TrEMBL record:
Keywords: Repeat
InterPro entries: C2_dom (IPR000008), C2_domain_sf (IPR035892), C2B_Copine (IPR037768), Copine (IPR045052), Copine_C (IPR010734), VWF_A (IPR002035), vWFA_dom_sf (IPR036465)
Annotated C2 domain residues: 4-131, 161-288
TM region positions: none
Protein name from the UniProt record: CPNE7 protein
GO MF term (any one): calcium-dependent phospholipid binding
Amino acid sequence: PRAPAGMGAVPEPSPQAPLAVLSKVELRVSCKHLLDRDTLNKSDPCVLLLMQSQGQWMEVDRSEVIKSNLNPVFAKIFTVDYYFEEVQKLRFEVYDSHGHTGVGTHDDDFLGGMECTVGQVSPGTPTWGPPPWCPHPNAGLLQIVAQKRVTKPLFLKYGKFAGKSTITIISEEISGNNGYVELAFRAKKLDDKDLFSKSDPFLEIYRIDDDCSEQLVYRTEVVKNNLSPVWEPFKVSLNSLCSCEEKRKLRGVVWDYDSRGKHDFIGEFFTTFEEMQKAMGENKVQWDCMNPKYKIKKRNYKNSGVVVLLDLKIHRVYSFLDYIMGGCQIHFTVAIDFTASNGDPRNSCSLHYINPYQPNEYLKALVAVGEICQDYDSDKKFSALGFGARIPPKYEVSHDFAINFNPDNDECEGKSSSRRVWSLARMSLLTPHTPSGIQGVVESYQSCLPKIQLYGPTNVAPIITKVARVAADEERTKEASQYFILLILTDGVVTDMADTREAIVRASYLPMSIIIVGVGNADFTDMQILDGDDGVLRSPKGEPVLRDIVQFVPFREFKNASPTALAKCVLAEVPKQVVEYYSYKAFPPRCPRPPTP
């Protein structure tokens, strides 16, 4: 999950404003005149992409290794989220790879680096200090998105030029209604370029832009010693392939691989995505693979082989709004920590103390998040659960009880008098028009406090499992009809960490997201393990989550901010998580919006 940009910079949208919209940007990288670090051969370059987060540089992706090449064009396309309101700092580092030992980080392996930003940064007001290889404070403040194509020199450490080395970054924004296409190619009877064996062919697909320049879209694997290779199917976005223009010209090139980087040209063909689509279903499309030099020199030259498109599948990528407009409901459940560490609710120092003029942190967090979620739930009824308390009638400890004490229906409905609602409105939390769901949860929360005994421990796995069971029932409908958000409010680190990790891994396969808000001044360091920011969460047995579904935030970071700031932070990941789940399950919206003409 993304951390907030900083409280001072968080805009405060109106209650009806949608969550911040991000774009995705594709970055293509190529280099020229790289330093040659190898004695007997040329460098084997690889590019690392790093992004700055909270002052630290973190590797987010890396390219393939290109053997023995000082002028590489990398097939890897880096995809980054682009936030208009943020300065996003990127660093590209080029290294000489060493086979099985991978990419080194020693100075001897370093071929040069360049630092820049994703979006528009004013050159006159640099926002970062010079990197180790940057000779001037404002060097490298690039406008990648605005300029589309940027070429800059590579620098070694301490501001030294890496010879004549340059790096070129080409950026493209992916359109919101973008999809992707899956392609499967093979070739037949290719020319044999090797003396003692058969050719080792690979295929490259290029898009030809309006300025007649070519952009590498994809490079297949090498099929060894085979004149009729079948390459592995691959997926590319329609934006990458043809800029979402069916008639845009494409060029395919077949090469015979050479380990020294001097690949032999076998032939080429030209097509369009419009023509490729004839391969859908049982049909196939094929092209003569032509070598222009042979065509001129050889009188009876026919081709250097044939390239066949065996299959083409188009996949539509749906947006969060596609699912919402299709009738998908967001079901909101709140789980409240009633362990003894909160303090006696009758004491003004307690985190559960009810002051009619000053809401406690539990109420603030509940209302801030609930008021956003209620817009996506037609019945406006919220489930509310408690954990860590002894409950009537037997006063046994429960970790998943309904705070309205109705085990058959844990959804809360407001029944307050207008006077009571007015009292809550004085907290700047509720108004007479606040939906019954939030009002009902607040009333049930206040009503249950005198009836229970705060106890412990802080076990949250039972509640995650309980909501997951309902989500599992929804999954079996095989429709994008309901997605579940569980808001857990707790004053301390969970006691059942192993069981909680296991429950989260299981829940990552279901239509469900989990938001954990830490209330009070406890040390929540151990809770960060549940958030995917520092790595992939795993179960005690080592199984990773399918999706990153947890967002943890300490409430104290938002004490002086408006409720909308907290809601924006904790809910920012939900649209992406909804889309990730339904894309993984291949569930389309129930009533998809017609495509924009």
